[in-house]
C-alpha cells in the first residue's frame, strides 16, 4: 500500500543510491533544489504532502531508474539496489569496457562474461545473482545526457526484460549499445536512443547476440 512515508523513503533511498542528497537529486532532475526538503513534506497545517508525479517521473529519468526499482525502494528495509538489505552484501563483480564488450570472445551466448582476469568493482548483490551480474563502463559521449563517459552500468542478463527497461544490446556484428526497449516480439526489437542526436534502432532477433537489462547506474 502506498503511503507518504514509503514514497519519501524511496526518494531518499534513490538519492543515496546515486551518492546525492535529496536536494542534489532534485537539482539533477531539473527541479527546484528544495523540492524534496523535509519542510516540503508537510503542509503549513501539518498534513502530509505527496510529491508530484511529474517530480517522480523526472528523477526516474535523471537517474535511469525504472518504476519497478522505485517501487522496490518503498519496501521496508530496501537497500540502494532495490533489494532487502540482507541480500545486499557487497561482492566483487567483473568490470568491462564498452570496447571490450564489442570485441569477440568476451561473452557467452547468454550475455555473461566469459573467462577471467577482468577488472572488478564492488556492488551489493544477492548471493544467488553474483554469477550473472557484471558492470559495463561507459566510454565516449554517445549516451549523453543520461550516461556520461566513465559512468558504470550494472547489467543482469538473467533479469526479465520488459518494455520501458533500459537495456544493453549486442548485435552479431559486434555493436554494443545502451537503449530503452520500446517493443519486443519473437521476431525483433525496437530501441529508443538515450541520446537525441543518435537514431532509434530496430533489429531482427536473428541479428541480436544478446540483450541484458540495466539494473543500476553509478553516476
Automatic annotation (TrEMBL):
Superkingdom of this protein's organism: Bacteria
Domain Peptidase S24/S26A/S26B/S26C: start-end pairs: 94-215
InterPro entries listed in its UniProt record: LexA-like, LexA/Signal_pep-like_sf, Peptidase_S24_S26A/B/C
Biased composition range(s): Basic and acidic residues: 42-51
Keyword field contains DNA-binding: yes
Key word rRNA-binding present: no
Keywords: DNA-binding, Transcription, Transcription regulation
SUPFAM superfamilies: LexA/Signal peptidase
Region described as Disordered: spans on this chain: 25-52
Gene3D superfamilies (alphabetical): Umud Fragment, subunit A (2.10.109.10)
Protein name (Swiss-Prot/TrEMBL): Helix-turn-helix transcriptional regulator
